[in-house]
């Protein structure tokens, strides 16, 4: 069970968390995964990893600054995803692409949406 994966795989307003920096970074994560689908190269995978790590750092910083109650559990989910990405190499297989697409969609709508209005 979860949220539908958009096709084409692009960020839309239904993913908005109403923090401009985070929304912009979320768009970049969609673009990073989409790039891995289009040109399934190690360079695109490395770029995606960088975007993910930078975004998680920004998001976790905002949570910590605002004493977000679910910080620890949220950070753990981030660490698990970073670990999954670290274990991948290009070209990505179908299940790895699906996992990444599904994880991002469900993380934003199921987890990130919980911090709306709570990060200052």
Describe this structure in words.
- This protein has a domain at 39-115: Four Helix Bundle (Hemerythrin (Met), subunit A) (Up-down Bundle), CATH 1.20.120.50.
- Helices cover 63% and strands 0% of the residues.
- It contains four helices and no strands.
- The protein has helices at residues 20-38, 42-65, 71-86, 94-110.
- The termini are far apart.
- The relative contact order is 0.19.
- The model has no long low-confidence stretch (mean pLDDT 96).
Mean pLDDT: 96
Number of helices: 4
CATH fold name of one domain:
Four Helix Bundle (Hemerythrin (Met), subunit A)
The gyration radius over C-alpha positions equals: 14 Å
Please supply descriptive tags for the structure shown above.
single chain, 120 residues, mainly alpha, Four Helix Bundle (Hemerythrin (Met), subunit A), 63% helix, Haemerythrin_Fe_BS, Hemerythrin, iron
Record the SSE blueprint:
Blueprint: H1 20-38, H2 42-65, H3 71-86, H4 94-110
Helix pairs in contact: 1-2, 1-4, 2-3
In short:
Helix content is 63%, strand content 0%.
């Amino acid at each position: 069970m979860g949220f539908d994966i958009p096709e084409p795989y692009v960020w839309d307003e239904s993913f908005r968390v109403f923090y401009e920096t985070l929304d912009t970074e979320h768009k970049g994560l969609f673009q990073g995964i989409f790039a891995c689908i289009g040109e399934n190269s190690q360079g695109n995978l490395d770029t995606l990893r960088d975007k993910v790590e930078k975004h998680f750092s920004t998001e976790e910083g905002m949570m910590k600054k605002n004493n977000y109650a679910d910080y620890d559990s949220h950070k753990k989910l981030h660490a698990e995803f970073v670990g999954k990405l670290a274990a991948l190499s290009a070209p990505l297989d179908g299940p790895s692409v699906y996992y990444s697409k599904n994880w991002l969609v469900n993380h934003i709508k199921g987890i990130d949406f919980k911090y709306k209005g709570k990060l200052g």
